[in-house]
Amino acid sequence: MKYLMLIYGNEDVWGALPDGDLATLIGQVDAFNEALRASGELVDVQGLVSQARSVRMSGDTPVVTDGPYLEAKEYVGSYFVVDVDSEQRALEIARSYPGLRLGAGIGGGIEIWPLMARDGDER
Fold first, then answer.
1. For residue 122, is pLDDT > 90?
2. CA dist list (Å): 98 to 7, 21, 102
3. Are 37 and 93 in contact (CB under 8 A)?
4. What does the pLDDT look like over 78-113, one tens digit per residue?
5. Closest CA to 39 of 83, 75, 71, 87
6. Taking the alpha carbons of 120, 79, 102, 108 in that order, is the dihedral positive or negative?
7. Residue 99 to residues 14, 43, 103, 123: CA-CA distances in angstroms?
8. How many C-beta atoms surround the C-beta of residue 32 within 10 A?
9. DSSP state for residue 117 in the 8-state scheme
10. For residues 1 and 20, what is the distance between their CA atoms, to the nearest angstrom?
11. Neighbour-count burial for 44-76, b at 16+ CB within 10 Å, e otherwise
12. Highest-pLDDT range among 33-42, 49-58, 61-70, 99-108
C-alpha cells in the first residue's frame, strides 16, 4: 500500500536555524531518503515552494487566493510517498523521520495518508 507523508513545519523557525544545524538536518534527511530508496520503499520525495495557492468556489466561480489556505503557524513544506507492506511500516518510517527530532518546536509533524489505488480501492 502506498502512503503519502505530509511534512509540516514553520518557515520562520526553519529559516532561523543556525547553518550548522540546518546542514546537519539536511544530511540526515538525505540519508533517510537514500535508505528508503535503497529498500525500494520510496516512491517520490519533493520539497514544496512556499507559494501555495487555493482554488475554491465562490458562488459559480472558482476563485484563486494565496495560500497556504488555512491560517496556521505550520503548513506542508514537503512530502514523500512510500510503498510498504503495512500501515505499521508506514508509521515506523514516519516516526524515524529526522526532522521530528532536531529540537523542540522545530519539527512540525507528519500526517500519514493512505493513497487510493487506481480502481478506488485502498491497498
1. no
2. 11, 12, 7
3. no
4. 899 999 999 999 999 999 998 887 655 556 789 999
5. 83
6. negative
7. 10, 19, 9, 27
8. 18
9. P
10. 37
11. ebeeeeeeeeeeeeeeeeeeeeeebeeeeebbb
12. 33-42
The pTM score is 0.81
Asked whether the beta carbons of 121 and 94 are under 8 A apart, the reply is no
Position of cell 514537503?
78
Which cell numbers hold the place of 104? 523542540
Residue 10 identity (one-letter amino acid): N
Cα–Cα distance, 7 to 80 (Å, whole number): 8
H or E segment to which residue 63 belongs: strand 61-66
Helix (H) or strand (E) holding 90: helix 87-95
